[in-house]
Each structure stands twice: as C-alpha cells, then as structure tokens.
Amino acid sequence: MSLIKLDEKFLGTELREKVDAKMSVAVEKLHSIQEKSCVGSEYTGWWDYPQIYGFNLVKDVQAYINSLDVAYDLVLVIGIGGSYLGTRAVSSAMQHSYQGLVNSDKPLISFLGHHLSETAMIEVLDLLDERQPIVNVISKSGTTTEPSVAFRVVRKYMEDRFGKDEASKRIIATTDKDKGALRQVSQDLGYKSFVVPDDIGGRYSVLSPVGIVPLALAKIDVEALMEGAHQVFNELKSGDLNNHPVLRYAAARNVAYESDKRIEILSYINPKLFYVVEWWKQLFGESEGKDGKGLFPAGLAYTTDLHSLGQYVQEGVRNLFETFIHFDDASTSHRGAVEQQLKVPVSESNVDQIGYLEGKRINDINYGAMVATKIAHFDGQVPCVEIQAPSLSEKTIGALFAFFETACAVSCLMLDVNPFDQPGVEAYKKNLFGLMGKPGFEDLGQELKTRL
Ligand SMILES: O=P(O)(O)OC[C@H]1O[C@](O)(CO)[C@@H](O)[C@@H]1O
C-alpha cells in the first residue's frame, strides 16, 4: 500500500477516464527515468538516492556534527532556490513556529542568500549578534549572485567577530566537487565542505548534502526524512504501477493541461506547510514551464485565502486545476513530540452562534472546511485531486519529496519537456550582469541602459 494516497473523486468521471487511458504512458516515462534513457537522464541521480547514497550520507553527516568543536545555537543557511527551499520546507514544518521564542533544545535556523534586500540582510546580521552562529553556505554552481553577495557579507561578519581561525570552523560549504568560486574559497580558507552530486539539479537536491547537512545541524530527524523518501521510491520499483498515486497524479496534471487548464493550485490547510509549497512551486515551475508549455504552479493557504482569492477560484477564469494536500491529524506539539489536541470550548452562552461546534477538534473543523471547499470548487468547474499523507513528520515530508520529484519528472516527460534544465532563468541573470557592470557583459549593459 502507498504511504501517500491520491483521492480522485472530485476530478470528475470524464477526466478520471482520461487519466486511466494515460497510465501506460506514465508508466513508460517512469521506466525511462529508472533506466536513465529519458531526456536529461544525466540529472536523474535523485531517483532512489536514499538507498544508493542517502542512508550512508546521514551517518557521515551525523559523525561530522558529533565531532564539531564549536558550540552553536543558530544555523544560518545561505542559498537560493533548490539550495535552500527544501531545508526551509522541512524546518518550517517540523520546528515550532515560534522557535527561538519558546523553550527548545533545538537551534534556531535562519536563511539568507535568497534575495537581495539590504534591510533583510541587516536584520539577519542583528540576529547573528544575539547568537552563536554556524553557517552553511550552499550553491551548486558556486557563482549565483544572491548567495555570493550574502556570503561575502556574512563571511566578513564572522571573521570580524570570531577571527579567521574560528570563523573557518563555523563555516561549512556545500558546492560542486571541483568547479566554482565557492569550492575555491573553501579550499583556500579551510572550510569543511560537502559535495552537491553532479547528477542532481538544485530543485531535486533536498535529500543530498544540500538539505541533509543544515537539517541535521538543526537537529531535525534526517534519517526519518530519508526513510520516507526511500519507501516511496521502493513502492515505484514494482507492483501495480497503473494505480500508483505518484503516476496517477502526474497523469491527472497532464490530462488537466490537455483540457485547457493552465494553473495548478496546491492548496493546504496547515500554515506550517507554506515552504513545502514554495519548494513544490520551484520544482514544477522550473521543470515544466518551458517551450511555451506547462501548468503555472500556485499555492493557496486555506482557510486564509478563501477570504481573499477564494472568489476568483470559485468564479474567475476557468483554467484552474486544484490539488489539495492533507496530512492526517497534524496537531503534534513540536515542543515535546507530545500529541496535543485543541477542542472548541463549551460555553454557557451561544451569543457567538458556534454552539454546534462545541467539543469538536479544531483539526476536524479545518478538514471539514477543506472538504466543503473541494466540493464547492468542483461544482464551480475546477477539477480537484487530494493528496493524503499520514500525520506530519520528517518521514511523511521525505515521502512527499520523493512523491513530487518523481511525479514532476514523469509529468514533464508526458508533456515532452526536459524536466531537468532551466534555460529561461539565465535571461534575468545576464541582464543583471550587464546592468551591474560585470566584465564581459559591457555591451549588453550599454544596450539595456538605452532602453531605460
Ligand atoms: O545552487 P546554485 O547554483 O546557487 O543555484 C541556485 C538556484 O538557481 C537556479 O540555478 C536558477 O534559479 C536554480 O535552478 C537553483 O536551484
């Protein structure tokens, strides 16, 4: 039985039949990934990564962390896109939302290098002042502008505060095994370093050292994360693949696209999943949005967004396909791993007119709102599927990573696009080089300035 399930009831009969008819193609595309015969096959190192490398990686990283001779209470992750989103997805979901303000034996985790906001950088420097930081700078290419700028700022801060020797013990680099400026800097300054595998692109890299090192530093259960992913990859190696939720989700997206849907909304009812959805947006956006094709990946937080964008989803342009994501019973306390429940209190007066909810768990009301929304959206011509996972944990998030990575690659192949490149991202990067005067981009810079 699959760890993650897919409910297709509200896809509608017509689309469900179309999904059935697509399943042989989905299975064939999965096999082309497994056999490394698909387009972009040189970047399929994420497939089955837990079994091949992941569990050993976890042991190596834990051994390294146990051998650290600096104390820390803050992990600062510097990276952008696939070099930070997976880590942020897991840490936001698993740590207390007010980590740092409530009692906890776990370090705070913070992020930089994913923007160019001076104010936000200054605020992170303020935070570093309050803490004993350890820094993990992560860039596969080692040359991305945003993390390079942030790292230069933080490196100076660390060297000024701790001196070069101790700073080099508090900085860990994760980058290409031999290419790029970050590899050079870490060799020159003696940083501990980890390698981003050649055959894994940024957005598929969360289970590699890119995610495992910072998450382990933050004392998150990375072995369980790996175990969850391993379980899903294993499920996809045999059995009745025609009915496997990963492939049915990929086929449902494809069928929705062919039925003129152009936007996929990933809806969630637990605010702690915000960055899981941000991770998903990069995964599908960079993988599928090319050659003039692809569903635009959007995220909606319910019930919050029902009071802002809900009107559009119900009655705006009918080009939407919606995927709901639901974890069973997500109320475990992140302070002590003790199951906690919260019910609507009984009240003598019913002046607020919610007496009918007395004694009900908030979670049950929340799920009720999700089901109500799903039916309403289906009735408003938005075909919907629901991804159902066991209770929120490192293991289920790991399973979800494997679920979405595989579904994304299959979905792209069904659309005849390369799931593993992102040529379109270069356009803004080149323009920025031109406008900021990078050597070699002077002519482009001149030309752009005449257009301003
Ligand atoms: O790890 P790097 O090389 O800094 O790249 C970060 C991100 O930038 C991109 O190359 C472009 O957005 C992503 O694919 C990647 O996740």
From TrEMBL:
Give the first-level EC class, as a single word: isomerase
Reaction catalysis annotation: alpha-D-glucose 6-phosphate = beta-D-fructose 6-phosphate
Q: List the catalytic residues.
A: E286 (proton donor), K429
* Highest rank taxon of the organism: Bacteria
Q: Which CDD domains does the annotation name?
A: SIS_PGI_1 (cd05015), SIS_PGI_2 (cd05016)
Identify the pathway. Carbohydrate biosynthesis; gluconeogenesis; Carbohydrate degradation; glycolysis; D-glyceraldehyde 3-phosphate and glycerone phosphate from D-glucose: step 2/4
Q: Where in the cell is it found?
A: Cytoplasm
The record's section on InterPro entries has: G6P_Isomerase, Phosphoglucose_isomerase_CS, SIS_dom_sf, SIS_PGI_1, SIS_PGI_2
What Gene Ontology terms describe what this protein does at the molecular function level? carbohydrate derivative binding; glucose-6-phosphate isomerase activity; monosaccharide binding
Keywords, ordered alphabetically: Cytoplasm, Gluconeogenesis, Glycolysis, Isomerase
The protein's Enzyme Commission number: 5.3.1.9
What is an annotated GO biological process for this record, any one? glucose 6-phosphate metabolic process
Coarsely, its chief localization is cytoplasm
Q: Which Gene3D superfamilies match?
A: Glucose-6-phosphate isomerase like protein, domain 1
Gene Ontology CC entries for this record: cytosol
Classification via PROSITE patterns: P_GLUCOSE_ISOMERASE_1, P_GLUCOSE_ISOMERASE_3
User: What function does the entry list?
Assistant: Catalyzes the reversible isomerization of glucose-6-phosphate to fructose-6-phosphate.
Protein family membership: Belongs to the GPI family.
Q: Which HAMAP family match?
A: G6P_isomerase (MF_00473)
Protein name, entry field: Glucose-6-phosphate isomerase
- Species name: Pseudobacteriovorax antillogorgiicola
Q: What broad taxonomic lineage does this protein's source fall under?
A: Bacteria, Pseudomonadati, Bdellovibrionota, Oligoflexia, Oligoflexales
